[in-house]
């Protein structure tokens, strides 16, 4: 069994955290990841409500027919929040703490105003960082560990590749470091562990699993996609009026909507119908207009295995590779 700071601190069987993907990683996926030996996280987007959070926290801590694991696994889950969003309204943040998660992710902004409250609630604070400057901000805030999230990752991210960023963060960090971005198999997990990371945050590799909250049409598109079909764009945020800070775009699978609008964002911001089109496509699973965020690991999605199996297989394969080569 792989042993790292992450597995020892959180009593995990695999050094893997499920990425907190807004609108995709709800309670069922979080529960399944934890059942596979990692730590599952609920992705609480800017539109999430306290009622939604409570419902998904209950799912994360209660076994169902789709997830099997040790009896105590269900007590452990995490929640991911966008710091810029809770800066505007901390209602959701307070609701998260009431559910007593093991880890709270405070990313995309300065976590300092919230770290003490998370610690007082008995949870660890994780922050994704996209530059060395982000690392300094997180360390100064007193977070417990950081995730070097490269632009290979799906969803909102920075512009530095995972491996160059990870090397810089590992060289400069005084706290434990995990890696995220393009890690979709045991080979990827072995690579970042060999570099010195304490584990990996995995998102795209779990999107094909039945526990992910994703319409069938979008799941089918994921299986057909190759890594080179992902693009870094602000088109979907612009269309829906989501107030993401400009420095963070999102990596998504290329489609007709991006073709039409990616070079016309000023015009898109004033289009009264584009946001409704994207929302409808997201609900219906129409890949031509939906914002299907996925990272460059999408080309390694080969089946719709349960998330617990994906996590366990990654850890087993990484252990075999590390044992063979070191």
From TrEMBL:
Main EC class the enzyme belongs to: oxidoreductase
GO molecular function ontology, one term from the record: nitronate monooxygenase activity
UniProt KW keywords: Flavoprotein, FMN, Monooxygenase, Oxidoreductase
Entry's transmembrane regions: none
InterPro entries: Aldolase_TIM (IPR013785), NMO (IPR004136)
E.C. numbers: 1.13.12.16
Source organism superkingdom: Bacteria
The name this protein goes by in its record: Nitronate monooxygenase
Organism of derivation: Spelaeicoccus albus
